[in-house]
Amino acid sequence: MSPIVEGFSALLDPTVLLCIAAGALLGMLVGAFPGVTATMAVALASGFTLSLEPLPGLAVLLTIYVAANFGDRVPAILINTPGTPASIATTFDGYAMARQGKAGLALTSSAFASAWGTLVGVVLLMVAAIPLSRLALNFGPAEMFALVVFGLTMMIGVSGGRIVKGLMAGGLGLLLGAVGRDPITGTPRFTFGVPELSDGIPFIAAIIGLFGIAEVMNQILVHRRGRGVEPIKDFGRWFPRRSDWRTMLKPMAVGSGVGAVVGVVPATGGDIAGILGWDQARRASKRPEEFGKGSLEGITAADTSSNATLGGSVTTTLALGLPGDSVMAVMIGSMVVWGIQPGPSLFANQPELVYSIAGIMLIATVVALVISVLRMRGVAKLLELPQHFLWAVILVFCMVGTYAVNNSVFDVAVMIVFGLVGLFLKRFGIPPGPVVLGLILGTLAEGNLRRALEIGGPENILTSPIALGLLAVSTLALVVPPLRTAWRARRARAAESTTTPAS
Amino acid sequence: MADTTTTPDAPASGGARPGRRLRDLVPAAAGAALAAAAFALATQIPEGARLTQFSPRWWPELLAVLLLLLSVCLAAGTLRRPSVTVEEDEPEAATRQGAWRLAAMLASIAGYGVLWYFVDFRVSTAILFVALTWLGGGRGWKALILFPIGVTAILYLLFGVLLRVPL
């Protein structure tokens, strides 16, 4: 049977369809709650999906991933607060449209743009995943080590001007990844005689702690009464007219292109793509002055671009073993527990998995679009729910979900400790993404580096064009942002000094 | 539903939101301490039969040195920078009440861990929900009776019945 038929027919199982429905509802809900990110939701869901078979489990996680990118537009449009970081650019024009009495149009056009963007990403996944993994199959230890460094530095490079702190976070993650048995000799390291640590720090517990518990702890710490913004109540007309569709075509095309490219780059997600897509569409628009003031083109470009990253992120994650964004970093943890090792050999051994995953994402997109168009008013009601219900639910679900992974109280303790570590990182401006990435990729990095050096010494890395290229791009990703900032600061100072004498 | 917290949330004075320098120097100090501890612990890892060129200590020692260097870089960069700079990623200020609430919630969670050993999961979890909701500011029978019982039932159905987790 062809992999395409085999992959899609695996989705006919009613359990998978049920999981997609459950994931879509959950994803829409978590997306709609500001403060609950898709990363956090997938981390939370990992706790209970690990008891499922891999495909139904993947269906839940991937659908949450897709649907959260629809639900998060609701608070972005109605209260000017992104439900997840991926909808930051939605607020630029979405809230302005809502204030002009066009909230209904903003919500539906955003949903259609998001659906289109996701579909473009899924097509990219189906077309590019297998060739990319075939290319990566030729990678030896030197190239694999360089690939891990590339993934890690890309995540650090996009962590917003905090390069040293990002590097420290990556180093901490790699160090935590060294806990357990040595990948080559099997010698126990940093286990302190605790049997639960001999397989390393439990991924899922650490991830839930860093993304779920830490976020809730921070919200509890900074919460103030009566600070919420009153949601928009006047929705106006809901469905785009023919002229609106015509206006949306160009930004959809621009957003699709930007999102697809950004999605493939490891560790960059919908937040960056949304802003870049919005900016590119503004440059290409005949009415750039309307951007940021309630432009239909603006909201369309931002949402198409941010959602077009999903397919690219999944492609990079599954084909190369490098997380496409932070949600994928979390999902890798679950996949490893299921025995699915993302990386070049995955699609060589299981090509049908590409089509199953693409199928799940397609169905999830359709379901999320239908929910978005039909039930936006209902989702909008959620914004009025008090935070304390959410905190209690997240805290208890995190604990029980983590316990359920291995029926282990030790894992729950690890989760709480990582929650406190995550809170420290958050309060002191250290990105948690590189810690998770280092924790997950640490063994891969160490094993491949040691093998590469054992085989041919440093020359083994320095004579490989692919490894050198990846390491060069990694270096640029770390060096260029601070240099650019310094250059801009110098230019600003120069401009200031030339204007001061005149004034 | 309105938040029914009775005491106002006054922003905590002083260190509730660490200053820019402190926000760099504390992680630098923590990173250096962690690196030193990791290096010391790494030197105690058994070398084994040395069948390969690199011992099991090599990678953790390398990472510890790297972390130490980065911590020094962060501290040096902070001390050299002018003290008045624009903070782009400043965290929202913590409130004194938020800190107490968080401490009380963590204590409730620790208490729940103990209670679970002695009392049935459904009862102990419902009690935890009551405690967390009350600490979060929830009041009234819907928040303190209906919500805890309803969510505990869902939790038990999902994990205990459907996923057969021994709770």
Automatic annotation (TrEMBL), chain A:
Coiled coil is among the record's keywords: no
Protein name: Tripartite tricarboxylate transporter permease
Keywords: Membrane, Transmembrane, Transmembrane helix
Transmembrane segments: 55-71, 105-130, 136-156, 200-217, 318-341, 353-376, 388-406, 465-483
Domain DUF112: 17-437
PANTHER family: TRICARBOXYLIC TRANSPORT PROTEIN
From TrEMBL, chain B:
Domain DUF1468 per the UniProt entry, residue ranges: 31-167
Segments of skewed composition (Low complexity): 1-12
Keywords: Membrane, Transmembrane, Transmembrane helix
InterPro entries: DUF1468 (IPR009936)
Membrane-traversing stretches: 25-46, 58-79, 99-119, 139-163
Chain spans, region Disordered: 1-20
Protein's name according to its UniProt entry: Tripartite tricarboxylate transporter TctB family protein
Originating species: Nocardiopsis codii
